[in-house]
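Moderator note: this is an archived Q&A kept for reference. The question asked for a predicted structure of one protein chain; the sequence and the answer are reproduced below.
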Amino acid sequence: MSLQGAFSLLLLGNAQLIAVRDPHGIRPLCLGTLPTGGYVIASESCAVDIMGGQYLRQLRPGEMIVLDGSGIRSEEPFPRLTPAYCIFEFIYISRPDSLFDGARTVYDIRQALGRQLAREHPADADVVFAVPDSSNGAAIGYSLESGIPFGHGLIRSHYIGRTFIEPEQSIRDFSARLKFNAVRSVIANKRVVVVDDSIVRGTTSKKIVRLIRHAGAREVHFRVSAPPWKHPCYYGVDTPTERELIGNSLEPDQIAKEIGADTLGFISIEGLLRVAPRTMNYCLACFDGRYTAGKPETFEKTMLEQPRVANHAPAG
C-alpha cells in the first residue's frame, strides 16, 4: 500500500465520483443524498444539512465508494488496519452542529467534556465563560455541572479565522489580539473560570489571560477540555515540532505560571475517553505519542515556510 497517514480523497473521473477514506479512518468522510436525487460527499454532516440533503452515514475506515450512472457501490481496496479516529475532531476541529457517531452532535460531546472537566477540576468562582467559539459547549457543560453561572466574557470577531492553524507565529499573535475582546461588566471584580479547548503553544492563552485581567478579573482559573498537547500531529493539524508545544516541556502548574493564570486544569486522557463515543477507537498521538499510522522520518513543516527562491534572474 503506497498511501499512508490520514487522507480523505474525492476523485472526479469519466462520469464517476470516487470517495476514499484512509484505512485508519483518522479524518471523517460522510455520504448523503440531495433533494434532487443525487449524492453528496463531505467531511462533516453539517455540509449535507446546509445543502438541504439527508445524511446517510460515515464511510468506513478504508472504504472506497464509486458513484456513477448505475448507482453507488462500495469497495474495500486496502488491508484492514486498526481504526484510529482523530479525537481532536470533536474537541476542536469539527463544527458543533455535525453528527459525530451518527447520533450525538459534536456540541453534545463538548458539553459532556465540560461536565467531566468540572468534576476533575472544580473552582470557586463567580462566572464561567468560553474562549469562543469552539469552547462554547464545554464552557456551558462546566457551568451546568458546577452550578457557576455562565456568561459571555469574551467576544470574538468573526472576521478573524482560527488562529490555532495559522502557519506563522507572528500571524497567530496579531490575529489573537484582533480576534477577542473582553466584556468588562461580566469580568470586573469577579473570580472567573475561562474554558478553552486546548493549549498548544501557550501564546494565545497568555494573551487571553492578560486581556481578562486588564478587564478587572480578581482571579483567573483556566480550564482546558483537552489533555496537555505533548506531541506533534502529522495527520493534518499544524503542530509538527515538539519544541513548539508548551505541554511537552512544562507541567500544568508551570504552564499556569507561564500564561499568568491563578490555576490551570486539563481534562485527563481517562476522562476524555470516558466521554468519547464508544463506537470507535481513537488516535491520541498528540497526547500520548502513539502514532497508529506512523510518522515521517525527516519532514518538518518549517520546510514549507522558508522564503521561496526564484529560479530565474530578476528582470532589469
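Archived answer notes: DSSP finds eleven helices and 15 strands in the chain.
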